[in-house]
Amino acid sequence: MHYYKTYLKWDEGRIGTLSSETLDSFKVATPPEFPKGVPNTWSPEHLYVASINACLMTTFLAIAENSKLEFISFSCESKGKLEKVDGRFMISEVELSSEIKVNNERDKERAGRIIVKAEEHCLISNSVKTKIILSPNIIT
Questions:
Q1: Which of 51, 90, 106, 139 has a Cα-to-Cα distance from 23 of 20 to 30 A?
Q2: pLDDT for 21-69, tens place per residue?
């Protein structure tokens, strides 16, 4: 069992500072799409989508290492869809468009299986009700 502690302090308007005991702090705010939202600042919506994306990467890295898959690069763009569902705002789906560059053709299929397994085992994806859409691209 592990615990992850964060601290949030309201600064002014719709802006606060998010921190943790051992991490750098940063500003968070209401996104600009909402009344009095603040542009160019991390929002809860960004952090939510980013946490799913980061979890996919870290889970992929762990499984790839355990599977001894050698790869050249990993990147992933995530896009969260915010909409009203049953009268409430929610991020109903997140599309994860990953690109994995492998050393040779024979590793492409294996990398594809590993990224699918990573999404299935991602603890953040398993903790949310948001639909996760995985769109991997494996290249050499």
A1: 90
A2: 999 999 999 999 999 999 999 999 999 999 999 999 999 999 999 999 9
Residues 26 and 70 in one domain: no
96 in Cβ contact with 56 (< 8 Å): yes
pLDDT-derived band at 78, boundaries 50, 70, 90 = very high
At residue 78, what is the residue type?
S
Query: What is the domain range of residue 30?
Result: 1-42
Do 50 and 106 belong together in one domain? yes
Q: Do the Cβ atoms of 101 and 73 come closer than 8 Å?
A: yes
In the structure encoding, which two tokens stand for residue 91, read together?
A: 């991020």
Determine the residue type at 68: K
Report which residue type is found at 86: D
Tokens of 63: 């499984």
